[in-house]
Specification:
With about 400 residues, the protein is of the alpha/beta class. About 50% of the residues lie in helices and about 10% in strands. Helix 11 links the parallel strand 6 and strand 7. The longest helix is centred in the middle third of the chain and has 24 residues. The chain is globular.
Length: about 400
């Protein structure tokens, strides 16, 4: 019978350190690295794991984000998957779209249909509508909803408003049209990647047997940040692995807006594991907790007076669409700059900064001559344009390094 342990404790109590130690113990005891699967939060965490592991010898390190693992499996099993797809020309392998590309192509589709009098009562731009439609597709797939079911739920949200009924119906039509284009071109966006994995692979008993024969040990970090689709995969893996070690932070779950579901993780995963509660003394000092609550109170009450030694809390932005929220944020920043506040003295704080937020807000500010710098902890320095320029100059100055620009 599989032995599944779950480490339960706040940030700083040593969960990741224990996971790393467990990985090294497995390898040192003779378990091949090719038999150990590690699922982590994001790409920087993958790099962090690879840099922190201390192994005398190893094979391939199978450390993935959920989406990275899904992409790999889609590519590996592409021949079987494609044989079941209707329409389009055959391709040797799938092409995976970036978020920006998917948003751009959906925007073209929206503009094309607006010329046919779609969305007559919607004031948002084509780009804003496309952001929302792509987000709808992604959220549906991450919660295990088919495109048909997502369309039905969208239509149920009209509350009798005729304009909303028309707009939601047209939204569903465009999402289906976008999905058909993706399948025909074999160019796969985020939502279709997850849908194909769930409908063509996870639903296939033969693939499940192969999956369980491949991985003997499973390690999962930041379980609280996982989406329901990832939790379904973890549930399957737990039932097939010999040993598993997972980590859950009860103070986490900050990616809820992007699909993270800590409550679902507890309901699905906890009953399958032996839960070990770790030292809970690793929490923020009372002074910091009080400070954070004070900031939250100022924001929630919409207070605009200066607080905390001159730091201005500008109130809240309420919009129905996320695209409108990003647009309004860009507008507020531009107004502050026009009032004489230096851009470098303006900070935008968000629980999670995803590619859509960074791309859309950066583009809106760029049109006003304002540069957005992403300082999130997970951002690599090499991804910053100025750092890329410095690296290129350094390689030109030192040809003896024998590295390509």
């Amino acid at each position: 019978m599989a032995m599944n342990r779950l480490l339960y404790g706040p940030i700083g109590c040593g969960k990741t350190t224990d996971l790393l130690a467990r990985y090294e113990d497995l390898v040192n005891s003779g378990v091949p690295t090719g038999k150990i699967l590690v699922l982590v939060l994001n790409a920087p965490t993958v790099s962090d794991w690879r840099s922190r592991l201390s192994l005398a010898k190893s094979g391939s390190l199978n450390i993935f984000t959920y989406f990275g693992f899904v992409q790999r499996e889609i590519t590996r099993c592409w021949r079987e998957i494609e044989s079941s797809l209707i329409g389009g020309a055959n391709s040797l392998e799938p092409t995976f779209m970036t978020t920006e590309t998917a948003q751009y192509l959906m925007g073209l589709l929206v503009e094309e249909h607006r010329a046919l009098q779609y969305f007559p009562e919607v004031r948002a731009t084509a780009q804003q509508i496309s952001i929302q439609l792509i987000d709808n597709l992604n959220q549906a797939s991450l919660n295990g909803l088919s495109l048909e079911e997502a369309g039905k739920r969208l239509l149920q949200a009209h509350n009798g408003d005729k304009d909303k009924i028309a707009a939601f119906g047209q939204s569903s039509e465009l999402m289906n049209a976008f999905r058909r284009k993706c399948i025909d071109s074999r160019c796969i966006d985020y939502s279709l990647t997850v849908d194909l994995f769930n409908s063509k692979l996870i639903a296939n008993p033969g693939y499940l047997a192969e999956l369980n024969n491949t991985w003997e040990d499973l390690l999962v970090d930041n379980l609280e940040e996982t989406v329901p689709a990832a939790q379904d995969l973890i549930t399957v893996l737990l039932k097939g692995a010999k040993e598993s070690l997972l980590a859950f932070d009860p103070t986490g779950g900050h990616g809820v807006f992007f699909g993270a579901d800590p409550q679902s993780a507890q309901a699905k995963i906890f009953p399958l594991c032996e839960v070990e509660v770790l030292n809970t003394s690793y929490i923020a000092p009372p002074a910091l907790t009080e400070f954070a609550q004070g900031v939250a109170d100022k924001i929630l009450t919409g207070a605009e007076e200066d607080c905390f030694a001159g730091m201005g809390i500008m109130g809240q932005i309420f919009t129905q669409l996320r695209g409108d929220m990003i647009k309004e944020t860009g507008k507020r920043i531009t107004e502050l700059v026009e009032q004489g506040i230096p851009p470098e003295e303006i900070a935008v704080i968000a629980p999670t900064v995803d590619k859509v937020l960074e791309f859309s807000l950066g583009r809106a500010l760029e049109q006003q001559g304002i540069t957005l710098v992403n300082l999130t902890r997970g951002k690599r320095l090499l991804d910053q344009p100025f750092a890329q320029a410095l690296v290129s100059l350094a390689l030109l100055v030192y040809p003896e390094w024998r590295l390509e620009v």
